[in-house]
Amino acid sequence: MSEISAQLVKKLREMTDAGMMDCKKALVEVQGDLQKAVEYLREKGLSKAAKKADRVASEGVISVKVANDFSNAVMLEINSETDFVAKNEGFVALVKKSTEIVEQHKIADVEALNQVSVEGASFDEYLKGQIAKIGENIVVRRLANVSAKGKGVVNGYVHSNGRVGVIISIAYHNDKNASALAEFARNLCMHAAAMKPQYLSYHQIDAEFIAKEKVALIAELEKENEELARLGKPLHKIPSYVSRNELTPEVLKKAEEDLRAELKAQGKPENIWDKILPGQLERFVADNTLIDQRMTLLGQFYVMDDKKTIAQVLEAKSKELDDTLEITEYVRFELGEGIEKQVSDFAQEVMAQIQ
């Protein structure tokens, strides 16, 4: 193939944070395929992940509205062309009205929203009228409408910059716990806004994805160990497993047998093993669920109690309230995620406008 261009190398570097020469080598190895080059670098431990935030072109706002009785919450992502339009009074009013319409009409998706009657016209026509007034293209990109089913509470949170929003629903059995759980759900929403879990639990991650991420994660840890060794610092332990999906009953049984053998070899009295083993097994699980800790809400360590995962916090809260609690729904929106940035220089922009 033709020589790898400097622009392509630059783009790969912006996506991965890898070194310039590593990027060029990766592109040569995969014949210039950008996505394959990203995977190549990850497998070599040279890139933690594609930096999606750097490729986001969309501006606008995330809007969240929670019902007073915590029975329902709605969230919308409304995109604009520029960031300053978010301060425009017309845009702010449009966001508020759109959010209220979604809540009042129990709308589940953007297609249904476009068909709703607003001021004698469809929402789609109403939006076009607002675009003409505001003078900038505006799109309701996506929305979520979450209701408590049976006994449950729903709460939401939108970060102060309006770029991240979260909704979480928690089911319970004892009615007296509803008010306490509303605040608890909001705290979990704040955690998710900051820590960016992509999934609720490991059950939602398929085996093929885990296998792929495992290769990248181990390569990343091994690469970091090279630097830690150079600095004389403790090395990362390279895990045998990376998700609860891999920790089958057989794996956990073998881990317990190994720990018992280790306690015996250390000369620990057998009558205290049962007091030691639970903590060691918990440590084994923590060491071998790194993907869950990075990518799942229940697998992450809670920012307000970093000794416990969200799953453990939920279990502790259940005992505290004498109830059985379950997170039944989790939705997180980050403004513009997944939208590719269009790169152009000033001269190109001018030429595009005068053509």
Automatic annotation (TrEMBL):
Pfam families: EF_TS (PF00889). It is found in: Cytoplasm. Its main location: cytoplasm. CDD domains: UBA_EF-Ts (cd14275). The keyword Transferase does not apply. Gene3D superfamilies: 1.10.286.20, DNA helicase RuvA subunit, C-terminal domain, Elongation factor Ts, dimerisation domain. The keyword Transcription regulation does not apply. Residues 82-85 are annotated as: Involved in Mg(2+) ion dislocation from EF-Tu. Keywords: Cytoplasm, Elongation factor, Protein biosynthesis. GO terms for cellular component: cytoplasm. Coiled coil: none annotated. InterPro entries: EF-Ts_dimer_sf (IPR036402), Transl_elong_EFTs/EF1B (IPR001816), Transl_elong_EFTs/EF1B_dimer (IPR014039), Transl_elong_Ts_CS (IPR018101), UBA-like_sf (IPR009060). GO terms for molecular function: translation elongation factor activity. It comes from the Bacteria. Residues 73-225, 239-337 form the Translation elongation factor EFTs/EF1B dimerisation domain. Belongs to the EF-Ts family. Associates with the EF-Tu.GDP complex and induces the exchange of GDP to GTP. It remains bound to the aminoacyl-tRNA.EF-Tu.GTP complex up to the GTP hydrolysis stage on the ribosome. This is Elongation factor Ts.
